[in-house]
Amino acid sequence: MEKGAERGWSQILAQVEAVVGKNNVLSDQERFIDYSHDESTQIEWRRLPEVVVTPVSTEAVAALLKLADEAGIPVTPRGGGTGLSGGCIPLRGGIVLSLEKMNRVLEVDKVNQMAWVEAGVTLADFISAAQEAGLAFPPHPGDESAQIGGLIATNAGGSRAVKYGGIRNYVRGLEVVLASGEVIHLGGKIVKSSSGYNLMHLFIGSEGTLGIITRAIIQLLPAPRFSRSLVVPYDDLRKAIDTVPALIQEKILPLAIEFVEKDVISITEEFLKKTWPSRVGETDLLVILEAATEEELDRLSMSVAELCLAYGAIDVLVADTESKQQQILEIRSKIYEAIKPVTVEILDIALPRSEIANHVRRVKEVEQEMSLWLPTFGHAGDGNVHTHITRVSRQEGKLIPLAEAEWREKAKEVKESLYEDGLKRGGVISGEHGIGVIKKAELLRFTEKAQLDLMKQVKKIFDPKGILNPGKIVD
Question: What's this model's pTM, rounded to 2 decimal places?
Answer without folding.
Answer: 0.93
